[in-house]
Design brief:
Elements lengths: L4 H6 L1 H7 L3 H18 L4 H11 L5 H24 L5 H7 E3 L2 H9 L4 E5 L11 H4 L4 E5 L5 H12 L4 E4 L3 H10 L5 E5 L10 E6 L2 E6 L1 H9 L2 E11 L2 E8 L8 H15 L16
C-alpha cells in the first residue's frame, strides 16, 4: 500500500530518507552508530550491565564485541524501519524469508486464531510484513508514544501493509471481543517487556537472573485458545533475515511463559547481538 499524499508531506524528511537505496541507508546507519555509540553513548551503562550479568562466563573483550555488534544492529533496525515507508512487497520477499510458513498456513486453513508471542529480537519491526505472507487479519499491541508526531509516524510505518495497531491498554478487551465474535485473527504481543510495579506479573529465571514477566499472554491463551507461536529471527546479512516459527505449548510440567522463556533464551545465546540490550529489562527486583 502506498502512502497517501498527506502522509508523504507530513513525514517528508523520513519519506525522503526511505527512498534511498539500502546501501546508502546502511552508510547512514554506520554514521548513526558512531553518534549513538561513540559520541552520545546511548544507554551504554545499561547495555554493559545487562550483558555482564547475562553472560558471566564471557571475558571483557567478548562482552565488548557483543556490545559493538548490538549497537550496529540497533542502528540497522532504525534505517530498516524507515525504509518500510516505501519498500515494495517484491523487495520485502527478497529480504525476509519465512522458513516454515506451513505452520501458520495450517492454522489459517483451520480458521484458528494465532497469538504471536514475540520479543525484541532480530528485527521485530519487520513482523508488520506478515500480512504479505498470510491472509489473516493482523493486530499488534503497542504503547503509544508521548510525542504525537512520532507516534503517528510509527503507526504509519506499522500499519502500511495491513497490520492494525491497538493501544496495549485496550488489548485484552480487543482479544475478548474477537473471541466473542468468532473471528480468526493473528495478534502480536511483545513478551519481554518489563512490567510496571502494579501490573500482574510472575517471576522466572531468565538469562541468569530472576525476571518479572507479564502474565497477560498466558491468560489470553487460556481464555481464548489461540495457537501460540514464537517468531525467531536469524540475521543472514545486513537487511536480510530468516524467520522461523515455533509453537509454544503448555505441558503438564511447564507453562506457556516457561516455554517462551526457553525459546527466547536459546535464541539470545545463539545471536546475543540481536536482542535489545538497551531495554531496562531488569529494573524490577523480586
Amino acid at each position: 500500500m502506498k502512502l497517501t499524499h498527506i502522509a508523504r508531506l507530513k513525514f517528508f524528511p523520513f519519506y525522503l530518507i526511505s527512498l534511498l537505496p539500502m546501501p546508502i541507508l546502511y552508510l547512514i546507519s554506520d554514521v548513526l552508530y558512531i553518534i549513538v555509540y561513540k559520541v552520545v553513548s546511548y544507554r551504554e551503562k545499561v547495555v554493559r550491565y545487562n550483558l555482564v550479568n547475562a553472560f558471566p562466563e564471557r571475558t571483557g573483550y567478548e562482552i565488548n564485541i557483543i556490545e559493538k555488534k548490538f549497537y550496529h544492529h540497533l542502528c540497522d533496525i532504525a534505517v530498516e524501519a524507515i525504509k518500510t515507508l516505501t519498500i515494495s512487497e517484491k523487495e520485502i520477499k527478497k529480504r525476509l524469508i519465512i522458513r516454515n510458513p506451513e505452520l501458520l498456513l495450517d492454522f489459517q486453513k483451520k480458521h484458528q486464531s494465532i497469538l504471536m508471542y514475540a520479543a525484541h529480537q532480530g528485527n521485530w519491526e519487520w513482523l508488520v510484513y506478515l500480512p504479505i505472507y498470510f491472509q489473516i487479519p493482523s493486530y499488534t499491541f503497542y504503547k503509544p508514544l508521548k510525542n504525537g508526531y512520532f507516534n503517528e509516524l510509527f503507526l504509519t510505518i506499522r500499519e502500511r501493509f495491513g497490520v492494525k495497531c491497538i493501544a496495549a491498554k485496550k488489548g485484552y478487551r480487543t482479544i475478548i471481543r474477537q473471541k466473542n465474535e468468532n473471528l480468526s485473527v493473528m495478534n502480536c504481543i511483545i513478551g519481554d517487556q518489563s512490567p510496571k510495579r502494579k501490573q500482574a506479573k510472575i517471576w522466572k529465571e531468565f538469562m541468569n537472573r530472576e525476571t518479572a514477566f507479564l502474565t497477560g499472554a498466558e491468560k489470553i491463551a487460556d481464555r481464548t485458545g489461540p495457537a501460540v507461536v514464537f517468531p525467531n529471527f536469524r540475521k543472514i546479512k545486513r537487511g536480510h533475515y530468516e524467520l522461523q516459527f515455533h509453537i509454544v505449548e503448555k505441558t503438564e510440567t511447564s507453562s506457556i511463559i516457561d516455554n517462551y522463556i526457553k525459546l527466547l533464551e536459546s535464541s539470545i545465546r545463539k545471536s546475543p547481538e540481536l536482542w535489545l540490550w538497551s531495554h531496562k529489562r531488569w529494573k524490577l527486583s523480586s
